[in-house]
Amino acid sequence: xxxxxxxxxxxxxxxxxxxxxxxxxxxxxxxxxxxxxxxxxxxxxxxxxxxxxxxxxxxxxxxxxxxxxxxxxxxxxxxxxxxxxxxxxxxxxxxxxxxxxxxxxxxxxxxxxxxxxxxxxxxxxxxxxxxxxxxxxxxxxxxxxxxxxxxxxxxxxxxxxxxxxxxxxxxxxxxxxxxxxxxxxxxxxxxxxxxxxxxxxxxxxxxxxxxxxxxxxxxxxxxxxxxxxxxxxxxxxxxxxxxxxxxxxxxxxxxxxxxxxxxxxxxxxxxxxxxxxxxxxxxxxxxxxxxxxxxxxxxxxxxxxxxxxxxxxxxxxxxxxxxxxxxxxxxxxxxxxxxxxxxxxxxxxxxxxxxxxxxxxxxxxxxxxxxxxxxxxxxxxxxxxxxxxxxxxxxxxxxxxxxxxxxxxxxxxxxxxxxxxxxxxxxxxxxxxxxxxxxxxxxxxxxxxxxxxxxxxxxxxxxxxxxxxxxxxxxxxxxxxxxxxxxxxxxxxxxxxxxxxxxxxxxxxxxxxxxxxxxxxxxxxxxxxx
Length: 530
Hints:
By secondary structure, this protein is of the alpha/beta class. It has helices at about 1-25, 30-50, 60-90, 95-110, 135, 145-160, 195-210, 270-280, 295-305, 340-350, 365-375, 390-400, 405-410, 435-445, 480-485, 490-515, 520-530; strands at about 125, 165-170, 175-185, 185-195, 220-230, 230-245, 245-255, 285-290, 315-320, 330-335, 355-360, 380-385, 410-425, 430, 450-455, 465-475. About 45% of the residues lie in helices and about 20% in strands. The chain starts with a helix and ends with a helix.
């Protein structure tokens, strides 16, 4: 009896254990695991956000991070609600509306996140032939000193990439000190001041990797180099000149993102984008981008090229330099030393059966004439020119010696462009408007509740702005204007003055739309447009 009871009890115990294990397995829910992982990541993200947030005073950062680590979303929601109530209790906008705006700004920030070089990434500077900076430079001094100079050079270049700078300027202040500045969002920032000997060694290392003569310090020189960070390659253009107290070096950071922009990304309003698309779809004609240096004309050209089907149309570009490689377009880079100029390249392009021709910049009468004639013979031509406004562009083309009849028959539309800075979403605050300003806006039925001004925080380096967007003024050459051009009936001096004022007024209208949308500030408009 006992012999049979033992197996039965063992069997019942095993069965109960098996059922417990089965129940445990059945209780596992992958959705709960995914939600838990997502919650943990969200808490970690909020901890990171609180490090740079103005919602928590510096003295309480540590305690806030510990609380956010476990109760992240709830704690963050309480802080945002308290911040909104505190900052906007005296305004005529409801708390709910401000909360919606805060959430919208957060989601917009998440969508616009790009993967810039991280602090932990390693950078490698390379010459145009692919040689590492350490191979090109690094002799003439002790190895330890060489390593220090190379690390300092890489640190300067990497800092510019991290800050999304467009230029690096290294120039002497006096006999013993050099300043290192970067242009971020169109504004110069002082990054560092170095001793003369140390900075001259940095300049020599950059000149060496750019293929320049280190011994020549008086005559201007040009060169180029590249940098690899992770899997991405960045390109740089370098120019030097002998100045008082030493040698000045300028590095232009080419916009590697230019090839990814679409028309909807560069700041065009819906009506303007529709006009551009209409002219891009035409088989011939010229679209001419106007504006001063650094106004984003080349980026807009790339956005137009991205609107074109590169598989069905033969696109050839002539650029100086090529800022972004487009795999399905033929790109030619200007090289005056090899006698490759805009004019000569355009002549050869016309024999290569192009559908679309992109001219990086019109600098002389020959290039302008060839481009305008190409637009008359069944080619769509996209080009840029340095000028203050659309009206000034017509005057400049005539000053270059281009026939007014050729301009009238070849040019289709001109687009003048400027870049304005975008307010930092983390720290922008409502602008204090005067009673007369509010009354003026009310009379014109304008909603002034979304007008902000810059404040400054750690995320924007206390500038109050992060990133830039473009504003545009378009001039379509209609039959009346073409007729006046063809018959030389344009009063050039009067047109230059009136046209500049009209273009400035149109650009200001477009900029004000962005002010009322909370994108930029009144102070930024005055800075850019005067």
